[in-house]
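If I may wish for something, please walk me through the protein I am sending here so I can picture the backbone:
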Amino acid sequence: MHNFKRDKNNRINQGDIFRQITHIENWKECRNELTISRICYPYVVILSQDCDLREAASVRSNTISDKALISVLAAPLYNFDLFLEGKHLQGLGIDNIETVSKSPQKTNHKNLIQNQNPRYHFLEDNTNVRLPKLVIDFKHYFSISIKYLREIRDENFVHPINFLYREQLSQRFANYLSRIGLPTEHETSI
């Protein structure tokens, strides 16, 4: 990551990092009482394609268009050190996750840092914006309202990922999602 300011057009971009993002995980209504389950992520990165975000920004707010985005894809950014300890999901009540990084032959975590594991994407720390080393788990992504992001942008926008690194992130995410899932031995015998 490099020290860049927000887009001069003041829009949301692919690769933008936001802090303190609340995600509505679930909600339930029972006897006129609404129960909401929320997750607050310390950091998230926007994964949606920049061309879609650019088109959405060009649509006037009072105009209905097929280019208007309702939501964007985002992924939580986990503290790399907590990830290595398997404690990156403690805020969700999940402790001691067995991560790929705990295998004895990979104690230097070089494969994660060099982005050689297709499931994870490592972001180097940047002292200019005081972010720790962060990692994305491509199995963890969610949709978030673009209206919500616009409303909180002034307070919660942290930093964009450099343009070239956004492309790399986008390609790696798309490749991970497009992998072919092979059936397990149990599924093939049925």
